[in-house]
Structures are given as C-alpha cells and as structure tokens.
Amino acid sequence: MTTSIDSALPAAAATGKVVDKQERRYVRLRNVIAFAVYAFILVPTLIVIPISFGGSGELTFPPRVWSLELYGQLFSSSSWMGPILQSLKVAGLTMIVSVLIGVPASYGLVRFDFPGKRLVMLLLMSPILVPVIVISLGLYLYLSRLHLVGTTAGLVVSHVAYVTPFMMMTVMAGVKKLDPALEFATTIMGANRRTVFFKVVLPQLRPSIFAGALFAFLVSFDEVVIAWFLTSPTTTTLPVKMYSSIQWDISPVIAAVSALLTMLSLVFCCVSVFLQPAAAESSH
C-alpha cells in the first residue's frame, strides 16, 4: 500500500508541472492578445500627435518638417475657434444640469423603494439602450415643434437627456458604497432629510460626483450624432466641424484638433483613475 502511494506522488507532481506550464502558456498568450488589441486601438490615435507637429500643407507620418504651424492656424482661425468655444459652452452647461438632476435622482433610486421604481429606472437609463441615431431623430422632431433646433438651448437639453444616465451610473455606484447607518444616526440626532443629504451624503459622494461630472462633460464634448441633427451654421460644435472637414475639405488643422482631444481625454481618464481611491476612502 505504501509502495503504491509513493509511486503515485511523482506522477501527481509531474501532472502538476504540466498543468502549470499550460497555465503559464495560456496567461502569456492572453497577455499577447490583449496587448495586440490595445495596440491596434491606441496606435492610430497616438500617430495623430506627431502628425499634428508637421507642416501646414501636409498630413504625413512621420512629418517631413516639425513645427507648430497647425496649432497656430487652429488658434487663429475663427472657423475652428468658434466650434471649440461652442462645444465648451454646451459641454459645461450640460455637465452642470446633469449633475443637478443626476445626483438627487441617483440617491433617491438607491435609497428608497416606491411603486414603479423599475419603470423609472428603465426610462432614465433608456438613452443608453436606444441607438443614438433613433434618439437624434426623435429629438429633432420634438424640438422642431418647440423651435429649438439650431439653438444652444436645444442642444444642451438634448445632451442632458443623453449624458445624464452615464453620470447617474457613476453616482449610483458611489451611493451604494455609503453606510446607511451614518444617515440613520444623523436622523436620530434631530437632523431633517435635507440636512442629512447636504451635510452627510454629499461630502462622501464628492469624488463620485466629480468623476461623473467629468464623464458627462467629455461625452457631451465628443458627441457628434445628436449635434449633427440639431446644430445650425451658428451653433456648430467641434465634432460636427471635424466631421464636415473630413467629408468636404480635408484640412491638416484637423490633426492638431485631434491631438488636443486625445490629450483632453487622457487627462480626464487620469483624473478619474485618481478619484477612484478617494471615492473608496470616503465611503469607509
């Protein structure tokens, strides 16, 4: 009996080594595939950055001449600065309104139960589920009756309806991490619901709100389909201008714009990653 056990141990060890080798090969293959996918996605984006430092009359990689001419043309051209300022205004207003709507709505949906809660949740999250082209057509037909097509107000309202669900997802995740006992203890000590919300809940949700606000700003700033339906020549946003430039008049300045948008997205992503530990600490 002892002899059979002793002979089985080396076989089991050998089998374990084979399994470990297979797992290491699988992990190595998985990492290579993941790296290849990320490279396929990121390399075209990163190529735009050196192209933006080329000459004013070319879109080549690598640039034959290194200069800042494209950036100079960008910041001195009213045809580009107008859409940039319009996009910043629309994205800023959209961010503020979405925060004012999304934060109370997120807190109420997480903390309270009421009849029709699932239906309300479905309606609020429907812009994420419905194709954006369908949303754009519906907004165009609706806002045209209100004479808001081609106005900044109409574009802000449309973007608020589109980006608020994305903002709420971030805030709702933060609310779920909060300890309800703190709110209950504050209520026992005599605080009303408004005081609990502003003095206890909001300070803990600050990182989640800030991350959601950044996300709402970036989604609104980059949105092109809804803006294509609703903008006019005087309210053209930057993504619409870029799309029109590619379709009708390929200007090398678009490389500088793309590089700036890439850096803006990278900064926002870094800030969001930086806020995640802060959100975790504030919830404990």
CATH topology: MetI-like fold
State Rg: 26 Å
The helix content, as a percent range, equals: over 70%
Give the overall pLDDT as a whole number: 80
Q: Main sheet? A: none
Describe this protein's structure:
81% of the residues lie in helices and 0% in strands. The relative contact order is 0.12. It is globular. Helix 3 runs antiparallel to helix 8 (193-222). It contains 11 helices and no strands. The model has no long low-confidence stretch (mean pLDDT 80). With 284 residues, it is mainly α. It has helices spanning 2-51, 69-76, 78-111, 117-129, 132-145, 152-176, 180-188, 193-222, 225-230, 238-248, 253-282. It has a single domain (78-282), classed as MetI-like (MetI-like fold, Orthogonal Bundle), CATH 1.10.3720.
